[in-house]
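@channel sequence for tomorrow's demo:
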Amino acid sequence: MGSRKRHSNGHRSRHTVPGAGRPPDREPRPHTPRPHPDLATSLNNLAALLSEVGKSKEALEPATEAVTLRRRLADPQTGNPDRYTPHLAESLNNLAALLSEVGKSKEALEPATEAVTLYRRLADPQTGNPDRYTPHLAGSLNNLANRLSEVGKPKEAFQPATEAVTLYRELADPQTGNPDRYTPHLAGSLNNLANRLSEVGKPKEALEPATEAVTLYRELADPQTGNPDRYTPHLAGSLNNLAALLSEVGKPKEALEPATEAVTLYRRLADPQTGNPDRYTPHLAGSLNNLAARLSEVGKSKEALEPATEAVTLYRRLADPQTGDPERFGSPLARAERVVLDLNITHTDEDPDQ
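structure tokens (generated this afternoon):
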């Protein structure tokens, strides 16, 4: 076995051997036990659960530890890369998303990029398993596009966003793919592509994928044929995106309907009795700001004050130093307060007698 033998009485031999008394040429390498795969999985799951209940900061520690453990498990020298590289890629994707959620977009870029690299290798038609890993590659490309956008690199984000749509469209193809499984992912990637197109100054081109995303999410969230609990949040987000794009291309009247519907949906999702206010109140506040902007654009600054003021109220609560997260919501609060100020000025100019 290579281990030192002992005498039966437990004492070391006292025989003199050549070189005795000299320090060894190399210190023996300490044995580091391989981490248990189940621990890494449990940490990954814990991070996901914490994120789902709006505790992204608390989720960072288990997510980071999961990456560390899975990196060791996938190490080419000491681990089993064939078995654990997919798990490492998954954990990297999760960590990148969590870092983004807590406002650490620059730090999120490295794990997001590494995840794409690993999944691309895993999905390679020659050396990997494309049937199994192409969906993961598409998801990691979406993730990377979002992270690049967050750090002010919209041009670099366009390529992975486009590739993600191409892959998901193939995966969701009714003839050759699995539309039940991948249509939701296609809808999400279309939303992302629309956002990236808008960021590079192509709002007209962005309208098509944004409209398709709304159509798909509406079908997915249909109470009769779909899963409204799961897809209503996505429908609300895609409606917000569509409203913003319609405004960008000079169609403020058409933007009003999706903006109003987004507020209605987010209000229901954030309801303290029947929804998840911790998770959806920030989205409700954002959609109220969006609606206020759309109302102002069609000359209804008085009507816009109500949603804008409500947005400020919500953001103040979210940014409260004692009970909220001022680091995350301080900037949105300042922007919302500015919107209210501008609307008050506009309303006064429109109706000086008031």
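heads up for whoever presents: DSSP finds 13 helices and no strands in the chain.
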